[in-house]
Fold:
Amino acid sequence: MTKPSPTHYTGVAKFLHWAIAILIIMMLVFGQGFDDPKTEAEMAFSLRGHSTLGFTAIGLIVLRILWRIGHPTPKLPETVSPLQAKASKLSHLLLYALMIYVPMMGLYTAAAHEMAVMPFGAFDVREALSFLGNDNFEGRRFLHEIGTWLLIALLAVHIAAAFLHQFIQKDGVLRRMLPGKPKS
Structure:
């Protein structure tokens, strides 16, 4: 006898989803303005905040992937078309790929930064990743930014799809990930 498919995400999956979402938004805020002229202290603060959030996000993303491997996603309602279901699978796969790519490229970029990049104020990423070399900072930064913009675009699609399901299709897809206990 097979176990029935869940109708909602687990509390752990919901927590990780929303914690990662908040971290990504915060990282985007800390990441903005790196081009603006800053004092060295302001730049060090921004780098520390951005890298600390990035390290935290990487850890939570890895936990989310591991959790998802062991806990199946809820079955989509029958009102979701096969094309929407395929688009959902592809977009989630791309989201996970970009959520790994962007912070990894951030580390690769940090290894070539002219200033110390000290997540949690604990260590200098440049020293820890010295084996990556320290050349071509601008090229590395470009790759990190491209990934960031792709992630932003895909997040916009993800949010739009959630609103589409909630307010147009009214099929309960968004409610499966909202905090709180599911209503029977």
Summary: The longest helix spans residues 137-169.
